[in-house]
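2 proteins. here.
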Amino acid sequence: MGEVQNQIAADLEKALAAGTLTTDALRRGIREITGRSDRAMQDLLYLQTERSSPCSKVIGMMMIENGQRHDGAADADEWPYQTVLEAMADGWRVVSFPNLALMALNHNDSHGLEFEFILER
């Protein structure tokens, strides 16, 4: 959780302890912490890795968040996740694993990315 989310969580805990936490305040806090609006929109994260393991280094990424596409920073060290496992720890769920059948293809005539994970939240 980031600094803003920690502060929101702390404020909610104080209101709960004081007996002043309302249902609306709790819902608003949850939306602010998770970055979600009332209208839930699926976010997608495409991660290309060096190998088929979720622990492999990410070598390419593209994110669709709140309906907006983000390719990530030009410098890979600034990407939000360096492995699929890091993204999973941050709440992303894998919906598609690398299709290892692509490895059997002729590498001179590749039809897809060999080690692409697709995650959602």
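next one coming up
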Amino acid sequence: METRRKTARGEWTLLGLTGLFLCLLLGLFLRDRRAANAPAFAETERTAPIEEVRPDPSPVNLNTADAEALTALPGIGEELAARIVRYREEHGPFETVEALTEVSGIGQGKLAALEGLVTVEDTE
């Protein structure tokens, strides 16, 4: 008789612990579900209109621009601007915008990013 009571008590204890475990799992599930339905607040990148970034939207002339004007272009830092000016001084004016790829550090990707922002037109 004593063994049956111990077995029954052990079963009830195990059943109670199982119930507590299931309640814990339900609580975690409901918390995660509530978090998934909550609106996410993500930082969005703010961009300024091009007029604020570059007041003069006219293309930069590669044959007359100094290094400072070239650094205003996207992806052109001080070192690359100096290389462009040095290349122009050593090889003469650029005949086409595509000739800019002859400068070390400028590939097709960077040239595509500069499309419409640079020119080689005569200013005369």
